[in-house]
Design brief:
Shape: globular
Radius of gyration: 14 Å
Order of helices and strands: HEEHHEHEEH
Strand content: 15-25%
Number of strands: 5
Distance between the termini: 41 Å
Helix content: 25-40%
Number of helices: 5
């Protein structure tokens, strides 16, 4: 990976952009062989599409760029623990490794909730590394929701 390229920092920058646009601050970055493949932020409100999660958009962009239905050699960096929908897409795309910042006890589905990758019906489970810059992500989310109350 390029010495100056930090996928999680890029995901946080995208999450900040999402917050400025009134979206829940989540950013996602997909990397293959140390190179950026796709980078997205939440766009549910802007698109009027409940599937407009950062992970879903990044997966779609990466699949298009790679020209394949699988992302087996790719790693996903995201600022918040993925929900069930996103965990399903991660499994179906066969993403190699998932890095996430903050746990989501309410909506997460990796280390919380349904623990999607631990289910017998899940045919592919990525390696999961959670808690990267967790405090930074949690503070960003707290600030975003406090401003809306």
């Amino acid at each position: 990976m390029d010495a100056g390229f930090n996928p999680m920092d890029m995901a946080f920058a995208l999450a900040e952009q999402a917050a400025l646009a009134g979206e829940v601050p989540v950013g996602a970055v997909i990397v293959k062989d140390g190179q950026l493949v796709a980078a997205e932020r939440n766009r549910m409100r802007a698109s009027g599409d409940p599937t407009g999660h950062a992970e879903m958009l990044a997966i779609r962009a990466a699949l298009k760029k790679i020209g394949s239905g699988r992302l087996a050699q790719c790693d996903l960096y995201v600022t918040l623990e993925p929900c069930t929908m996103c965990a399903g897409a991660i499994a179906h795309a066969k993403i190699r490794r998932l890095y996430y910042a903050a746990e989501d006890p309410k909506g997460g589905a990796v280390d919380n909730g349904v623990r999607f990758f631990d289910q017998p019906t899940c045919h592919h489970a990525p390696e999961v590394i959670g808690g990267l810059s967790e405090g930074r992500a949690a503070e960003m989310l707290r600030r975003f929701f406090a401003e809306r109350r």
